[in-house]
Amino acid sequence: MTLKLYVTSILFFLSLALFAQNELSGKIKNAKDNTGLPGASIYISDLNVGVISDAEGSYKIQSLPAGTFLVEVSFVGFASQVRRLAINGSTTADFELTESRIQLNEVIVTGVASATEKQKSPISVTTLNYDEILEKVSTNVIDAISKVPGVSAMTDGQSISKPVIRGLGYNRVLTISDGVQLVDQAWFDEFGIEADPNAVNRYEILKGPGSLAYGSDAISGVVNLIPEKPLPEGQTKGEVLMNFQTNNGLINNMINVGGTKNGISWGARVDYTAAHAYQNKYDGYVLNSQFNNFNTDGRLGIHRKWGYSQVRATYFDMHTGIVDGTRDSTSGTLMRQVSYPDLNGGAPTYVIPTKQEQTSYQPFTINQRIQHTKLIWDNSIAVGSGRITGIFSWQRNQRQEANDPTIPNTPNIYYYSNAATYDVRYLLPQFNGFNVSAGVNGLYQNSQSLGTLLLIPNYDFFQIGGFAIVDKQIDKLNLSGGIRYTTRTFNGHDHWVDSTTQAPSTPNGPNSFHEFTGFKTTFNGVSFSFGGAYNISNNVFVKANIARGWRAPNVSEAAANGVHDGTVVYELGDSKLTPETSLEEDISFGVNSREVSFQLDLFNNSINDFIYAQGLKSVHGGDSINNSLNAAGLGAAPVYKFTQGKAQLYGGEVGFNLHPSAARWFEFNSTLSMVYGGLKDVPDSVKYLPFVPPTRITADIRFNVKTNGQGLKNAFIRFGMLDCFQQSKVYQQFAIYNGLNTALTPYEYRASKSPTQGYILFNASVGGDITSEGKTLCRIFITCNNVFDTPYMDYMSRFKYNPVNYTTGRVGVFNMGRNFSFKVVIPINFKR
Fold it and tell me: Alpha-carbon distance 402 to 337, whole Å?
């Protein structure tokens, strides 16, 4: 009887959703003269649907489910307007927009119950829209946000960057791509993010624990890579992007097309990028920093009054070199490896590259090839005035590393994984000002090591978590909070290898070595978040939030046993490690007006059972050196074992933007980012956490050129400065990743632990839209980064661990020198 009643109830609610006729219509007006604005965008994020206003500024969105939704209205040159509307039957809403270059209202979707106004969320979220992305010069998907306040990037050359939020990276930052968690091999800093920057229409960066909505691996934040919205009904359009950079010869070509007709939306993209070795004053061409990548994706969706369903598929394929930093002892030129260490411990051999090799677009050995395939099914179904959303994905990640130049097409490191993610939520109808979302999400991953050099075992893990998120509007106060319970089971497989070849072996083989002992762990964690945002006035606000994060040990921390080629340490995991838990307090104060924008964010993050690598000491007092035969061909290496302790990070960000309404031709923007991080109750030599970014200041002056629309519009000239301070608070034992296959010499060992110097870089850019008869023919962006060709080494670069240049005494490999970027975007309008 109970089952019958349950089925009947569902059918009843579905019938309401299927037969109710709901629509939203109205007019978008200019607040100055009350005239209609043609071409304004009206978009409902939760329903993934929108329209464009007609010649009179009128709009109509039909076939909508009933419910309360956040509606965002935007138009170029005007401040966006956001309003929460109850849609039931024929609903009318007019909007009056005010002229402004600055977007005073933004909608966010990361880590919240449903689409929310950024100013009303107590969680600190920074955004980057498509126009801001186009104006930036970058070489990978994380490079574009590496100067956002509170965000930096741990880099391994120009192709690989890993996000660091408020001093924490690796598995402590979760990356969301196309609405789902990106499941890959994220446990090592040599492994980048498998996403193409041209496939990102908007970034949302959640700063602080995101474990409430996403579970493990979001203890310090979330980077959400959001694709373009489906086009409005009746539109078919696209764009061609071409980018050339002078320093590294980067060539990037992309074409993207899409459309919507009768509620059926579709799109497709093809993208290719290639760059040769980059250059700087001290190193010349940084050999083997070249890379190339190919990306393609497609999408198909249906939008009806019951909701929407969309399928999206992506394929990302990158081939990148790995810089080992070996130099010619006479000239200091970076050399190319031509032989691999033999099994008797013989050293590899190198040659000085030719100019043709230095400017080749094909990486040399050592190199990586990364392939990531992703299939996503995204759904939202109306149930009465509520909604059920479900987004599912299947992902395959293949990461191959070839280390032997004599067999360049044979990877000796090869990680291959399949994964599935799921996220099902029920968004209750709004009642008494409450918005409630409850659901379950998680993932399953199986990973195999198919190469001959092993650092981690084969493994699989399963995670599931249930959560509820609630927000409540009380006059000018918006309260938000929630709780989550997560279970994560990890299974590391037993593995024997031949100690002379590293090939898989049987336990009774003549040279068998028990490299990985099988184990199984199950962890349970509770996460919560609670905070509020109070609007002192329409333009002034304060926020406060407290959140508990949770992260289970990753595969390297729990089970590593070996030397990764390209490093000089022997890593030992510990399967008895317990999960990290954090408690973070955030407070913000902001002003957001037509004249000025200002925001101060402060945070304090206390972490229990923080996991880090600690160098072991020998009985004689020096470094413990591992000479096990299982590290075949890699020589002796100092031993580092993962352990745990207490850590604390604190700091904040300041953002200031001056945009006077009386002088719309002028804008000034400046940011300050500071973070301090250290271990507690440990000796001074190891109390500072590695890769905590130094204090950073940015400043930009922008001049908006008035052209009266005669062949050029939206033109601008901008001058910028980046001041990165010296980082003197370094982790003295973390001397790894020298790039050689032998132990560090005493000088190199000391140098790799020394702090990097501060630096100041300048940049300049111009851009605008080329028009004819009111139509945009193309958009042009010309930028020069590092105008004065300043040699510098960023503290967040792994290349600071490369060997000393004995001809100059400088340690490591420096960052990119002066670089001009020429970018052209050509819109394609098939039908309006």
Answer: 12
469 in Cβ contact with 113 (< 8 Å) = yes
Report the pLDDT value the prediction gives residue 750, as an integer from 0 to 100: 35
Residues 18 and 6 sit within 8 Å (Cβ to Cβ) = no
Selection from 545, 530, 430 nearest residue 480 by Cα: 530
Contact at 8 Å (CB) between 568 and 744? yes
* 13 vs 420, higher pLDDT: 420
**The one-letter amino acid at 259:** G
Residue 138's region, left for phi above 0, alpha for psi from -120 to 50, else beta, is beta
Q: What percent of the chain has pLDDT over 90?
A: 60
* Residue from 626, 813, 806 nearest 738 by CA: 813
Do 56 and 29 form a contact (C-beta atoms < 8 A)? no
Longest dimension (CA), the chain: 88
**Where do we find the tokens 């249930």?**
466
Measured in degrees and rounded to the nearest 5, phi and psi for residue 4 equal -65, -45
Give the β-pairing of 221-226 and 236-245: unpaired
346: pLDDT strictly greater than 80: no
Decide: 405 and 412 in contact? Cβ < 8 Å. no
Residue among 764, 697, 702 nearest 724 (CA): 697
Per-residue pLDDT at 16 exceeds 60: no
Q: Which residue has the higher pLDDT, 34 or 750?
A: 34
CB 25 within 8 A of CB 92: yes
pLDDT tens per residue across span 71-96? 999 888 788 889 989 888 899 999 99
Q: How far apart are the first and last CA of the chain?
A: 54
For residue 812, give both structure tokens: 């490591």
The DSSP symbol for 745 reads: P
Q: Which residues pair with 372 in a beta bridge?
A: 316, 397
Structure-block tokens of residue 60: 């109509």
Q: Which residue has the tokens 């090939």?
A: 503
The region of weakest confidence among 249-263, 282-296, 405-419 is 405-419
Beta bridge partners of 668: 658, 701
- The Cα–Cα gap between 590 and 40 comes to 28
Evaluate if residue 697 carries a pLDDT over 90.
Answer: yes
Burial class (CB in 10 A: 0-12, 13-18, 19+), 504: middle
CA angle 322, 200, 226 (to 5 degrees): 120
